[in-house]
UniProtKB/TrEMBL annotation:
Name the record gives this protein: Acetyl-CoA carboxylase biotin carboxylase subunit
Taxonomic lineage from the root: Bacteria, Bacillati, Actinomycetota, Actinomycetes, Micromonosporales
Domain ATP-grasp: residue ranges: 120-318
Molecular function GO labels: ATP binding; ligase activity; metal ion binding
Residue ranges occupied by any Biotin carboxylation domain in the UniProt entry: 1-446
Nucleotide-binding as UniProt keyword: yes
Stored PROSITE patterns: ATP_GRASP, BC, CPSASE_1, CPSASE_2
Keyword terms of this UniProt record: ATP-binding, Biotin, Ligase, Nucleotide-binding
Keyword presence, Ligase: yes
Pfam families from the UniProt entry: Biotin_carb_C (PF02785), Biotin_carb_N (PF00289), CPSase_L_D2 (PF02786)
Amino acid sequence: MIESLLVANRGEIARRVIRTARRLGIRTVAVYSEADADLPFVREADDATPIGSPNPVQSYRNPEVILNAAKSAGVAAIHPGYGFLSENADFARSVAENGLIWVGPSADAIAAMGDKIQARNLMADAGVPVAPGTREPAPDLDAALKAAEAVGYPIMVKAAAGGGGMGMAVAADPEALAVEYEKVRGFAERMFGDGSVLLERYFPRVRHIEVQILGLNDGTVVALGERECSVQRRNQKVLEETPSPALSAAQRAEILAAAVNAGRAVGYRNAGTVECLFDPESGKAYFLEMNTRLQVEHPITEAVFGVDLVEEQLRIASGLAPTFGSAVPAPSGHAIELRVNAEDPKRFLPGPGAITAWVEPTGEGVRVDAGYGPGNVVTPHYDSLMAKLIVHAGSRDAAVERARQAVAGFEIAGPKCNLPFFTELFDNAEFLSGDYDTGIVGRMRAKPKK
């Protein structure tokens, strides 16, 4: 097993990795910006190294700064968490070239999946179902209009290098496409340094389902169930659950098999997630993208499968077999994760501030992965995620009720907070039925017609 580890991240995911590493006897080193000096992850690590400015480009997203910190600390490995440098193929390659262990997939796998068009084509060639769309970037508006005519409207306009719901727009007709194409291309150039644009069929009613995979050292790729991620605002997830209430046993088996094939197609090692769009009308799933890292919502998979995915990551990176041997554990019960964000519960606009009260819920089947605590300050420099509230119970109904009670018992004061949104969601008939899609939050927020 790896003996020492630098956690190249912050907040709740840094605490999460440190917690497992400590249990395994691994020495941990945290890195932190000036804005994060007082956060819990800094004091919970065995050692901590300041890396400068709150601006992530100068600290958490700066490969040279992270590598220098790792060398100075004398660690054996780097765990990137999610976001920041976690899907930066050049950084993963640099880590290996500097004699350190990268806790993640190979740089080649990251690069292959990092470009949405290349990933789509690779998956299609491997027999993984993909939605109708372009095999090459649309270099200009004329090419985009011709491609859209062939694929059909409405159409999704996507930044090929985007992720996390950023760089996406929908066009219902050629006039709208002319506007959205230029918007997405300009956004992609500013945010990702790559203005390549992908066009893909837009499904008006769709569910977002993803599969947790592990690529093992013997070349095997296994799937640890799926997660339903359709409760979203601005194309970004706010609640996830597993198993998905949308799938039949046959559909589940088909989606898991496709995800395993996707992992095999790139020789995948370590933890990753295959994201799919599921069309409830046809019952078909289409490959969306592969996230070559640990997901924010990984705890619900841990709850139902009884595994520690960070431990599995560390074991794979160390050249070891998984804890569960050759037999994937059977899932048990139902789990839900709520992303507790510093944002208002109506319009979901960020509302950072000093935390004056913080009381976490407790009890059977309740887990809180938090990046903050009382007295900390949520700054505007980073994502608004303050904590993840995870519940696990024997059935979906029981899990929803446990989540409802846990939300009522979670007290946060100071920053704005979206906990009231979840109280509202758990009274929503569409959500309670399990028959919902990615438009559910929009319908909840739609103004009533006069």
